[in-house]
Design goal:
It contains 21 helices and no strands. The chain is mainly alpha-helical and 426 residues long.
């Protein structure tokens, strides 16, 4: 039993570290977009430069379903651990290489092309990361532990966000003004290699999923992705996709948009935005662990229902409070309230998706549906920029964007069955 518990902890840590790096890279891009948009897409219209840079950011997100499907097939056929060894180096190196990119002033049109290609590669490898990490962790723990392990695992993204917020705060204080635009942002991306190396060492010591080893010889289809769209699996796939699309949309409409909202529309300094994000991401970190734990008591769909209803109710008054806030503490407090309702529902998702699909296609289905939620959800910041560019009714448009995602979560939660008692050995 001691060996089993030790194995569970190593698997959890190996997956958590990779997700932390993923969150680190994602939020670094969100932080630096307002500063580097003119470096890659110079324009007299700052809104156009922002939209162009956000669109490149979204490329890394919407390509993730391809990575999820490709590496999901690999994970179902060759093993979860092997997949994770490949994906961690892929997107760790892509994060590091972002800091080496030449700007428009250096190479002209090649600058945005290189940026697009690199973000494409980053998204492809990161897309394969989620499914393998989720299923190997859920397949390695007892049923009664799946909720808390799910929440803790998903907190890896928030941990990456928190570390990136702290790193951003340090770098912006060390490299003030033009120094940050010149080379400070590059240093942020260079640091991404550190968690990648640590995650690789931990994963090397992991065991393969016992559930997968038991089923692999007779149950794995030749092309797992094809089975997702069979009559039996099509319904759970698309019903799960409603939830993930809503979660992704609400996430990027709230915490994913906050750095741009405060810097571009509220005129705050980078350092203050960094402090706000530290508070917000700390709330998401604790919140995902909490929702995962509670979902083991009351169910996955019930916690998603509660959070989506709360988000719909509070979005307008909280965004109005953010617009009217006059000090940093108030901005942090209102941001924490908002992101707790909109972003912590992810705490149940590793368990929910692993429970929704059978072992023979679990890696493929979980990874594909999770990342497919980004196809629509990732566009929330761009939609937010266009809504807020009108100039009037900023809190209402900000809130409306969040409500769109929350309604999708609510609909998906009501259409999907409860899964917490599912047998993952099937």
């Amino acid at each position: 039993m001691k060996e089993t518990v030790k194995h569970q902890k190593v698997v959890l840590l190996g997956s958590w570290l990779g997700w932390s790096l993923d969150g680190y890279d994602l939020v670094l891009m969100l932080f630096v977009i307002p500063s580097i948009s003119q470096l890659f897409f110079p324009s007299e219209n700052s809104t156009l430069s922002l939209v162009a840079t956000f669109s490149v950011y979204i490329i890394a997100l919407i390509v993730r379903p391809l990575g999820g499907a490709f590496f999901g097939n690999f994970g179902d056929k060759k093993g979860r651990k092997k997949t994770m060894m490949i994906t961690i180096w892929g997107f760790a190196l892509a994060t590091f290489a972002t800091g080496l990119l030449p700007t428009w002033e250096m190479v002209g049109i090649l600058a945005p092309i290189f940026l697009i290609l690199l973000r494409f590669a980053q998204g492809f490898f990161a897309g394969g990361e989620w499914g393998s990490g989720a299923v190997i962790t859920m397949e390695s723990v007892e049923k009664q532990k799946r909720g808390i392990y799910s929440g803790f695992l998903q907190s890896g993204f928030a941990s990456g966000f928190l570390l990136a917020s702290i790193a951003f705060q340090i770098i912006t204080n060390l490299f003030v003004g033009d120094a940050f635009v010149d080379y400070g942002w590059r240093i942020l991306f260079f640091t991404g290699l550190i968690p990648g190396f640590v995650a690789f060492i931990v994963r090397y010591k992991m065991h393969e999923s016992y559930v997968w080893l038991h089923r692999k010889r007779s149950k794995t289809p030749r092309i797992p992705i094809k089975e997702i769209f069979t009559k039996k699996q099509r319904k759970p796939f698309f019903l799960s996709l409603i939830i993930l699309t809503g979660l992704m949309y609400a996430y990027y409409a709230s915490i994913g948009f906050i750095p741009t909202f405060f810097q571009e529309y509220q005129g705050l300094e980078r350092s203050e935005t960094g402090l706000i994000m530290i508070g917000a991401t700390a709330a998401v970190l604790g919140g995902t662990i909490f929702t995962g734990f509670i979902s083991q008591k009351i169910g996955r769909r019930k916690i998603l229902t509660i959070l989506s209803v709360v988000a719909i109710i509070i979005s307008v008054p909280v965004t109005m409070a953010l617009v009217n806030a006059t000090n940093t503490l108030d901005r942090i407090a209102y941001s924490v309230i908002l992101v707790f309702a909109t972003a912590t529902g992810f705490g149940v998702i590793p368990a929910f998706l692993s429970e929704r699909f059978p072992t023979r296609i679990r890696n493929t289905a979980s990874g594909t549906v999770f990342n497919a939620g980004l196809i629509i959800g990732a566009w929330a910041p761009v939609i937010g920029i266009n809504l807020l560019s009108v100039g009037d009714f900023i809190p209402y448009f900000f809130a409306a964007n969040i409500i769109i995602g929350s309604i999708m979560i609510l609909v998906g939660a009501r259409l999907n069955p409860e899964t917490r008692n599912a047998d993952l050995a099937e």
